[in-house]
Design brief:
Elements (H helix, E strand, L loop, with lengths): L2 H18 L3 E9 L2 E9 L2 E10 L13 H15 L6 E13 L2 E14 L4
Length: 122
């Protein structure tokens, strides 16, 4: 299955999950010269920058393991650009979305939400 379709599916599943938890989605796929942030949301007083990793399983490790130091640095730089002069507390989360294919369609089997997955100077 096409990688973009799987990624879009995972981000949509993550948004539904977050909204069910009371988050307000501010944006998706925010881009800067440093990279892209999958989801930006509000959780109480926090602006939360969320990286979504969508996988069928953990055969090659946990999806969150792919948010390495280099990726974290790009996320922080992109978040800084998004924040501008705002003085609001921020947090970086990772959502692991697991899926399966059934009858040619994708369905979410589990979401693992890692709050405050890494720190950053924002």
């Amino acid at each position: 299955m096409e990688k973009k379709k799987i990624g879009d599916f995972g981000e949509s599943a993550a948004c539904r999950y977050l909204e069910e938890k009371g988050y307000t989605i501010l944006g998706r796929n925010y881009r800067s010269r440093y990279g892209e942030i999958d989801i930006i949301a509000m959780d109480g007083a926090y602006i939360v920058f969320i990286e979504v990793k969508t996988r069928k399983g953990t055969r090659y490790g946990n999806p969150s393991e792919y948010v390495d130091a280099r990726k974290q640095e790009r996320l922080v730089k992109t978040a800084l650009q998004y924040m501008g002069e705002q003085d609001v507390p921020v947090r970086f989360d990772v959502l692991e979305v697991f899926y399966r294919e059934r009858g040619g369609a994708l369905e979410s089997t589990r979401v693992n939400h890692i709050e405050n997955a890494f720190g950053g100077a924002v």
